[in-house]
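QA checklist item 7 of 12: single-chain prediction sanity check.
[x] sequence parsed
[x] length recorded as 328
[x] structure emitted
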Amino acid sequence: MKPFRYQRAADVATAVDTLAATPTAAFLAGGTNLVDLMKLEVEQPDVLVDVRRLTSGRIEQHPEFVRIGAAVTNTALAADPVIRERFPMLSQAVLAGASGQLRNLATTGGNLLQRTRCVYFQDVTTPCNKREPGTGCPAREGFHRDHAILGTSDACVATHPSDMAVAMVALDAVVNTQGPHGQRAIPLVGLHRLPDDEPERDTVLEHGELITSIDIPSLGFAVNSRFRKARDRASYAFALVSVAAAADVADGELRDVRLALGGVAHKPWRATRAEMVLRGAAATEEKFREAADAELADARPLPGNEFKIPLTRNMIVDVLAELAEVRR
C-alpha cells in the first residue's frame, strides 16, 4: 500500500475544502471498499480525510420523507424498525449485501459509492478503461460472466455492486450533498453514470462533494415490497441479478409499481419501461412477463452472461407475482 497522510476534519466544510484543494485526496468513512482498493493499489490517495463523525448517524422521520444520515451503518439501517416496517425491500437489500462484520462498519453514504468488483479493474497488471482511461476493456473478450447486459459501451461492461442502492433507486431516494459549490439534492437514479466513453466517472459528484444524507420519500405501498438477489453462494456474494419491487395491488389490478434491477448495469437500473407496462394493468403472470420483456428489449449480453436475460425475466415475474399474490 502506498503511504498516505491521515487527517480528521473538524466539520463538513473543512473536509470539503481539503478535498477540493487536494486532487489526490479521498474521503474515508467505513473504508470497507476504499481500503481494499488501496491494498490492491487501484486507489492511491495521498491524503485520507476522515468524515465518519461529521455526518449524522441517525434515521429521522419527517412528514414527507425519512432521512438517513450518511454515517448510519448498514447494520443500523437494516435493523431500524421504521425502515423494516415502511420500506422492507431496503432492509432486505442491506442484509443481502455483505457479512455482518462489514455491515457493522460500512456506512450508508459509502455504500452508494462502492466501485465495481470487475476482476480487471481490481488487477493493476491488466488494462482497464475505468482504472486507466484509454487502455481498453479486456472483460469484453475475457471473463464477463458477472458483467452488465444493459447500458453498456465499448469502453466498459462493469456492473455497480451495491444492493442497497438498487432498493433506494426503486424508492425514488434523493441524495443530499455538500461540495465546493454548495449543497445539492440529487435524485439517486441520476447519481450514478452509465459508462459511455468515460467509464472512470462512476457518479456525477464533483471532487470534494460529500454525501451528507439520503431522503426516502413517503410511499404508502412500499410496505408491500421485496428485494430478491441471485448469487453464486448464499452468503457474501455480489449479485448476478437482483430485483427490488414495490406494488400497489387492488382488485387484481396493479395501481402503481416501483421496480429496479441490480447486477445488470454500470448503475442501479430503474426499470421504467416495465413500470409503464404494469401501471393500471391486470396483475397476471402474462403481464409481468410482458413488462420484463419490454425492459430487457435493449439488453446486449456478451457470450458469457447471456443467461442473465432469462434469469432477470424470471426474477421480475417471481417477485411481482409474490407481491400481487398471484398463484402460479
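[x] summary fact logged: The first helix runs from residue 12 to 21.
[ ] second reviewer sign-off
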